[in-house]
Amino acid sequence: MEFFRGDFLTNGDISAKVPIWWDLASIDSLMGEFLEYYGDAAQLWGSRLEGLSGTPSDAAADINREAFRYYVPMLTLWRRLPYRDPNLPLHYLPKDWKEPAARRAFVRTHALLSPLAAIHARQVISA
Fold this sequence. Notes:
By secondary structure, this protein is mainly alpha-helical. It has one domain (17-126). Helices cover 69% and strands 0% of the residues. The chain contains six helices and no strands. It has helices spanning 14-21, 24-38, 41-49, 57-79, 81-84, 99-126. Helix 2 (24-38) packs across helix 6 (99-126) and helix 3 packs across helix 6.
């Protein structure tokens, strides 16, 4: 493993340079779009999945299929976001920067749906 560290030497305010180096409005808009579609997904799916441990296999298969249908578009939308995000300390970014909320929404929903979507995918592939 190799590690590189550098220091930015400037006479100016880095916070003023960040919007020049990255299109923050565009990135924030993409994060907002993600939140618009998936911001409450973890709560919705969490409520839906409560108490399903003893469900019949047909109902479980339906839930797994629906989780797959929901998860794949969410993952597709999310995948492009980390590459655009400057991943800077928040004090360099706008006060209402949406990335932390979008990341939390993705991580929570991923944790709920990824295992169910994987079960469905394995069943389809092995069928």
